[in-house]
Amino acid sequence: MTKSRAKPKNILLTLKEKNEDNVTTIKQLYNIIYTYKRSVRGSRIKMQQLMMLLERDKYIHWNMCHESSQAASDIFWTYPDSLKWLNAFSNVLLMDNTYKTNKYRLPLLEIVGVTSTGLTFLTAFVLMSSERENNFTWALRRLQGLVLRGDVYPTLIVSDRDLALMNVIKVVFPKACNLLCRFHINKNVKAKCKLLVHPRDAWDVVMDGQL
Fold this sequence. Notes:
This protein has 211 residues and is of the alpha/beta class. It folds into 3 domains: 8-42, no CATH class; 59-180, Nucleotidyltransferase, domain 5 (2-Layer Sandwich); 184-211, no CATH class. It has 8 helices and 7 strands. It has a 7-stranded mixed sheet, with helices on both faces. A hairpin with a 5-residue loop joins strand 4 and strand 5 (120-127). Helix 1 crosses helix 2 (26-41) and helix 5 crosses helix 6 (163-172). The protein is globular and about 60 Å long. The model has no long low-confidence stretch (mean pLDDT 84).
């Protein structure tokens, strides 16, 4: 079931449904899954395993290395189908970093495209060692290289107020308009203005997002 990418909680539920006397705990299940994955990886270190899987599944990928050790610091990857979508719908891109979503505590830059009908598609992912301008420059240059036609580039890029990312967008995609994400704006307003909004009814309007 792990090989089929079933979630641990679903695996445990299935086991207990098949056998009411099963006393396996979620912790035991995680240990078993770890042992299984470790056996599949064999003698390869985690980075070697990742690179092997990217090659095997035909992902388009690059990695940036530390100048001193030549160890990979940042990894960019995308799927060939995403490349097709990007070249068909490159006008609007959404960029945002997620935090504390992996055990390495590294920011994950997600780049999402928007079709002409308003649907979204995953464009690329970048696991970054830091959020400095040189990291963003490397990542956006890789994204730029995915566009097959030299005259087709994003005209609108939506991001949060990450100044390093915004500065790099101006350099790599100078013709693109960089807008701030309304979700992040609303979130910041709610976090900052609670003590300033009176009476209670007005605060309820703010919390409902009716800004």
